[in-house]
């Protein structure tokens, strides 16, 4: 009984004993964390500065540029214009783009653009020949895939090359034919899908013959 009473008194006394300053400990931990962060940033900054200094040559004066107008346009301080063609005049001191004129402007109906669009049509002609076989086998997903995954480029090429009224009329008939083929394939109507696929082949061949 006495021992229990003594133990109770000791526990009560320890509850009122002075505790360590928790707030001070947290503050010290925060200070140490700040010091570690500053040391890490300083090390990272030194790692960035040293490689940049390696680009300098012995006896070379400092290199700088102000919007490419004053100083060395090829220096690292140029910022946005760094890496641009400094031998040609810029559109403005604040732009990395060259001056307008010559090859800087888009010109429609250039020979290379026409050849590119013709190549799209030739590839589409080859792809359209697969459609009748897909329809015969009732592979409707293949018909729809063939009409969507490449026909985006075909539409743009046909529209871009259609100049005369006859060409525009044939182009419209071709667009309607491939849309009909896609619709009838979705409905799984074999006869109508086959007819629409045949028309799409015919109209695209007719259009290419007018070029």
Short description:
By secondary structure, this protein is mostly helical. The chain is built from 8 helices and 2 strands; from the N terminus they run ααββαααααα. It has a two-stranded antiparallel sheet.
Descriptive notes:
There is one protein chain. This protein has a two-stranded antiparallel sheet. A hairpin with a 3-residue loop joins β1 (65-66) and β2 (70-71). The relative contact order is 0.07. It has 211 residues and is mainly α. Helix content is 64%, strand content 2%. It has helices spanning 2-15, 22-54, 111-128, 131-136, 140-148, 151-161, 165-187, 190-209; strands at residues 65-66, 70-71.
Structural class: mainly alpha
Order of helices and strands: HHEEHHHHHH
Distance, first to last CA: 115 Å
How many DSSP-defined strands?
2
What strand order characterises the main sheet?
1-2
Strand content: under 5%
User: pLDDT under 50 segments (min length 5)?
Assistant: 47-54
Number of helices: 8
Largest sheet: 2 strands, antiparallel
């Amino acid at each position: 009984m006495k021992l229990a009473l003594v133990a109770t008194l000791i526990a009560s006394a320890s509850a009122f004993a002075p505790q360590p300053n928790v707030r001070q400990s947290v503050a010290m931990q925060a200070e140490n964390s700040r010091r570690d962060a500053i040391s890490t940033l300083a090390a990272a900054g030194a790692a960035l500065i040293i490689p940049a200094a390696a680009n300098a040559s012995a006896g070379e004066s400092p290199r700088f540029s102000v919007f490419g107008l004053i100083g060395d346009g090829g220096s690292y301080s140029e910022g946005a214009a760094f890496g641009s063609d400094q031998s040609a005049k810029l559109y403005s001191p604040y732009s990395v783009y060259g001056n307008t004129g010559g090859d800087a402007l888009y010109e429609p109906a250039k020979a290379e653009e026409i050849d590119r669009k013709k190549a799209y049509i030739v590839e589409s002609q080859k792809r359209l020949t697969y459609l009748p076989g897909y329809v015969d086998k009732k592979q409707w997903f293949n018909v729809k895939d063939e009409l969507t995954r490449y026909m985006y480029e075909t539409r743009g090429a046909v529209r871009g090359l259609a100049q005369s009224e006859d060409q525009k009329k044939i182009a419209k008939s071709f667009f309607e034919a491939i849309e009909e083929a896609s619709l009838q394939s979705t409905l799984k109507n074999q006869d109508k899908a086959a007819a629409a696929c045949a028309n799409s082949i015919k109209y695209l061949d007719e259009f290419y013959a007018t070029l």
